[in-house]
Amino acid sequence: MVDAIIVLGGGLTPKGELNDASRSRVEELGRIYKRYLKNKRLKIIFSGKYGFLSSKEFKTSEAALMKKKALELGIEKKRILIETKSQDTIANAYYTKKQFLEPRKLKNIIVITSDFHIPRTAYIFEKTLGKGYRVRYIPVKSKMNSLKRHERLVKEQTILQYYRVVLHNGKSGDDVLIKSFINSGHPWTQMRRILK
């Protein structure tokens, strides 16, 4: 039985609206949502402030905008939780764990994200959550042409390798390591160069 479905933010447009990736992830939730309604404690968690690569701050978070879209799709408001601190995937995993999964004992999880993002997401969630969680990933087909998709897959592989190097010696579920990485050890400038 699924305890929680986590939908990761995928970015905002320059106008502060959901971009294609974020909107597609919520729409995927809308397609699968009714399959899991038997579990009365099922929670839907939208995670994301806005991406760290954003050149400006937005008044409304990805999570809040995804919630608004989900309500339009008929998702029950009482099931929805939003996490609005994270600006990258590792922070999505960490803040969702600390804010919702641990306190509510939500152990059986589905994570919805873009298809190209699944390998990195799976590695990060495994490293961040640790043992005791069962996580399944639902990929959302991205709307990129083949060239852009190839470029994105190469970038994702580079970023995943980076995480594997810096988190290699850390034990899965080590909150101190993950928190320190988010707070002080995260080389934003290096990541910006990789993603550009």
Summarize this structure as a short list of keywords or feature phrases.
5-stranded parallel β-sheet; 7 helices; Rossmann fold; 196 residues; globular; alpha/beta; 5 strands
General description of the model:
The chain has 196 residues and is an alpha/beta fold. It has a single domain, classed as Rossmann fold (3-Layer(aba) Sandwich). 47% of the residues lie in helices and 14% in strands. It has helices spanning 20-32, 62-72, 89-104, 118-129, 146-167, 175-185, 188-195; strands spanning 4-8, 43-47, 80-83, 108-114, 134-140. The protein has a five-stranded parallel sheet. α1 (20-32) packs across α2 (62-72), α3 packs across α4 (118-129) and α4 runs parallel beside α5 (146-167). The chain is globular, with a radius of gyration of 16 Å. The model has no long low-confidence stretch (mean pLDDT 91).
CATH class: Alpha Beta
Q: Outline, from the CA principal axes?
A: globular
Evaluate the radius of gyration: 16 Å
How does CATH name the architecture? 3-Layer(aba) Sandwich
Mean pLDDT: 91
Count of strand segments: 5
| Helical content class | 40-55%
Low-confidence stretches: none
CATH homologous superfamily label: HUPs
CATH fold name: Rossmann fold
Percentage of β-strand residues? 5-15%
Largest sheet: 5 strands, parallel
The ordered H/E elements are EHEHEHEHEHHH
Identify the strand order in the major beta sheet: 3-2-1-4-5
Helix segment count?
Answer: 7
Terminal CA distance reads 40 Å
Helix-and-strand structural type? alpha/beta
Total domain modules: 1
